[in-house]
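Study this protein:
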Amino acid sequence: MAMPLRAAPAPGEDDPHVLVLGRISDNPKAHYAQLKPLLDYVVARMGDVGITSGRILMARDARQMSSYLRRGRVDWVTETSGTGVELQRRTGAQPLLLTERGGASLYHTLIFARADSGLTSLDDLRGKSIALQGVGSTSSYIVPASMLLDAHLPLEILLSPRDRPDAQSVGYVFARSEFNIAAWVDKGMVEAGALNDLDWKDERRMPLAFRRNMRVLAQSPDFPRALEMVRPGLAPAVRERLRQVLLQAAQDPQARDALKRFFGTTRFLELDAPALKALEHVRQAGARVREQVE
């Protein structure tokens, strides 16, 4: 069944027989193609709990997605852990499963500088600048900002890489992409950058010519890479069947292509005690950044 992409639900579209998958997106067309195959796969296996069709609903930011969740317009959301816990704070949405992408369900943040910069610790960044990806990034905004606050380093947003912070602060600037972060540090436009360990090893994002001239200043604990969330008030039978279908998908050859398109997902996992503890760390980091930085 075709699932039209809409900016918002039309009147009367609330239907307990329709499963709505949501995503915060700045590229709805590309994300629709990534989401639709897995939604089709899931819907086809949920008839026993009354689900007969599916729909995709995009939001431009966490605020809009929170509105959709509170109003019951979206049932299931796939997001990074940082955005997931923010949606939980705003709406009461609950984590359903951990998402493993490319064989990794956890990762960590690295804060780095050029090896010839003379910087050897986070404290050396006082009065210096760091490139981060953007406010929506867990591994390249929320976590590194929290690491700097933990090191008693106040943060100050910069107008550009050429702008400078005061002598007691660390200035941060958004580079928008992982490659830009690496390049800005390599070219000396900023003194430091933050990437997760998977991007650090990916030569498309951190070319070997850059990486071999870098020094890691600090590393965060591991935290969940991505989450599947469900709205508060979703029927328990629908929630449980969705959980079962996603958990079993990795063992089903018919799901292989849909999982691959779903942001390179390799499987879904239960949120065990270590994952929940790591998620709580992300929650606390996000709260601290909201309070002390934003």
Notes: The chain has ten helices and 14 strands. The longest strand covers residues 94-101.
